[in-house]
């Protein structure tokens, strides 16, 4: 079951960095993105909301 916050769904995607290393990124979207899969809230993180824009983001506890 994907994590949702006020209509935003949390997605994850693996991206390849310039040095060749792969890193997992998390992002919120209201629509289905071109790439990425819905995911649960990762352990050790909480959700914050930008006061000016209203966009949710992940923050380490």
Give a concise summary.
This protein is mainly β.
Structural description of this entry:
By secondary structure, this protein is mainly beta. The chain has one domain (4-60). It has no helices and 6 strands. The strands form 2 sheets. Strands 1, 2, 3 and 4 form a 4-stranded antiparallel β-sheet that branches. It has a two-stranded antiparallel ribbon with strand order 5-6. β2 (8-16) and β3 (22-29) form a beta hairpin. The mean pLDDT is 97.
Please give the structural blueprint.
Blueprint: E1 4-5, E2 8-16, E3 22-29, E4 37-38, E5 45-49, E6 56-60
Antiparallel strand pairs: 1-2, 2-3, 2-4, 5-6
Shape assignment? globular
Number of separate strands: 6
Mean pLDDT: 97
Rg, Å, rounded: 12 Å
Describe the biggest sheet?
4 strands, antiparallel
Oligomeric state of this protein:
single chain
The helix-strand sequence is EEEEEE
The low-pLDDT segments are none
Number of helices: 0
Give the % helix.
Answer: under 10%
Through-space gap between termini:
22 Å
In total, the number of domains comes to: 1
Helix-strand makeup class: mainly beta
Characteristics of this structure?
61 residues, mainly beta, 4-stranded antiparallel sheet, two-stranded antiparallel sheet, 6 strands, globular
